[in-house]
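ok new one. same drill as before - structure tokens go in, u give me an amino acid for every spot. 435 of them this time. try not to just spam alanines like last time pls lmao
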């Protein structure tokens, strides 16, 4: 976690310059887990440095995988001997705030013939787990936990899995990925069908590393097998980029370039939303890594108008809705974020927390069970709170960057979950922060 509990931003100054963002969080979690399942030495550079990815790193170390830091380029070297060499953890695996750690580890551990217990912080232990534990139980894993394995702490005694056809009720990359990791350790074929496309890093990376995983539309086909060891330079996190993208859109005079960002189409749909709102954004692909397109994003400030985000677009932009809601607050007209019930079960209830924070800025907000409606206009400075949610903290900071005068964000330390260096990067682009 970042040490600072309160961030005071003197907003209004334009953002200018170039930035390389920390490594993508989703790709970093997966790179660590896939390296742990491979037989050989893998090397990962620009690994995400937040607390969440640290949890996955500690978890695989508890399972007996050797990891050491390689000082240059935020690198790690991982020595593993395949899933059969993983051993029973001596103590509870602590996942902190990280849903990705807990859900993906459940899939890995469901295939291992030993006992493990996973727990998290208050937020994570309130988040729904039946969506993962039920299909894993169907495949043969013994999983127990609070309220019939609906909530962590969860215990797993894995092994002896059978492939199955699994139809998911929610579009969730964490659930899908857990089932893929179980499917790699199961007898026969596992087929996972999603109601809409969620992010597909697991499928792309595992296929690039030679594991028997194939995706077609919203179905993933998995057979028994494992990834090979690999070398990967993790591209920049597009969800972290989104905070600076929106800040540059809404702060007059801004012109920034974000370099070497992961441009997976399912992760940059928020750029389509902003472009629809009138944003001035250019995306230039420069290459590909582990099946993932990579490139630069240039943003210049412009006037925005309201939009509607709904249906299949929502799973692809759900992490960005807090900051898109900030863009909506500065846009002309009403914006609607619909079909977004999943936002209620993220690190915070993001429909409720964004309603509170935008209201603090004098913005008109209406909420429904699965919707957030924002009346754009002229927000004013105020005192904001993170609610312990890293993305709410950074969305609040983005509003503060655009508002002339001082805005305070309380509970700022939550930013350490995904982006401990946010303030340094903001300052490097010309943002003004009180010491
Ligand atoms: C993630 C998937 C998303 C996202 C989360 C990270 C992942 O959740 O919100 O921040 O790395 O798989 P879903 O499981 O709801 O898709």
């Amino acid at each position: 976690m970042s040490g600072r509990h309160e961030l005071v931003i003197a907003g209004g100054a334009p953002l200018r310059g170039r930035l390389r963002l920390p490594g993508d969080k989703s790709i970093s979690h997966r790179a660590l887990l896939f390296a742990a399942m491979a037989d050989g030495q893998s090397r990962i550079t620009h690994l995400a440095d937040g607390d969440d990815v640290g949890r996955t790193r500690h978890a695989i170390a508890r399972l007996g995988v050797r990891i050491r830091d390689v000082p240059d380029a935020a690198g790690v070297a991982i020595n593993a001997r395949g899933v059969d060499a993983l051993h029973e953890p001596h103590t509870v695996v602590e996942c902190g705030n990280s849903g990705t750690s807990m859900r993906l580890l459940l899939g890995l551990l469901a295939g291992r013939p030993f006992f493990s217990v996973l727990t998290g912080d208050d937020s994570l232990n309130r988040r729904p787990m039946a969506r993962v534990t039920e299909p894993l139980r169907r495949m043969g894993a013994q999983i127990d936990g609070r309220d019939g394995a609906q909530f962590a702490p969860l215990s797993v005694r894995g092994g002896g899995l059978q492939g199955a056809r699994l139809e998911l009720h929610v579009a969730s990359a964490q659930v899908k990925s857990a089932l893929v990791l179980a499917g790699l350790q199961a007898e026969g074929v596992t087929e996972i069908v999603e109601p809409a496309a969620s992010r597909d890093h697991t499928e792309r990376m595992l296929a690039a590393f030679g594991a028997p995983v194939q995706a077609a539309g919203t179905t993933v086909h998995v057979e028994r097998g494992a990834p090979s060891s690999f070398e990967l330079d993790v591209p920049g996190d597009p969800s972290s980029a989104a905070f600076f993208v929106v800040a540059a859109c809404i702060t007059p005079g801004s012109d920034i370039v974000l370099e070497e960002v992961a441009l997976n189409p399912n992760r940059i749909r928020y750029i389509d939303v902003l472009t629809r709102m009138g944003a001035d954004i250019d995306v230039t692909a420069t290459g590909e890594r582990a099946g993932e397109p990579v490139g630069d994003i240039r943003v210049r400030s412009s006037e925005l108008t309201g939009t509607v985000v709904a249906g299949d677009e929502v799973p692809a932009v759900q992490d960005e809705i807090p900051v898109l809601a900030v863009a909506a607050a500065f846009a002309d007209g009403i914006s609607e974020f619909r079909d977004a019930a999943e936002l209620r079960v993220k690190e915070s209830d993001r429909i409720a927390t964004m309603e509170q924070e935008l209201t603090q800025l004098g913005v008109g907000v209406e909420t429904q069970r699965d919707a957030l409606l924002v009346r754009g206009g002229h927000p004013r400075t105020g005192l904001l709170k993170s609610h312990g949610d890293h993305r709410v903290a950074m969305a609040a900071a983005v509003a503060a960057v655009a508002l002339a005068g001082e805005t305070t964000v309380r509970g700022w330390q939550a930013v350490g979950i995904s982006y401990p260096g946010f303030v340094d990067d903001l300052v490097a682009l010309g943002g003004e922060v009180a010491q």
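Residues 26, 29, 100, 172-175, 177, 198-199, 318-319, 342 surround shikimate-3-phosphate (CB under 6 Å). and btw The chain has a mean pLDDT of 97.
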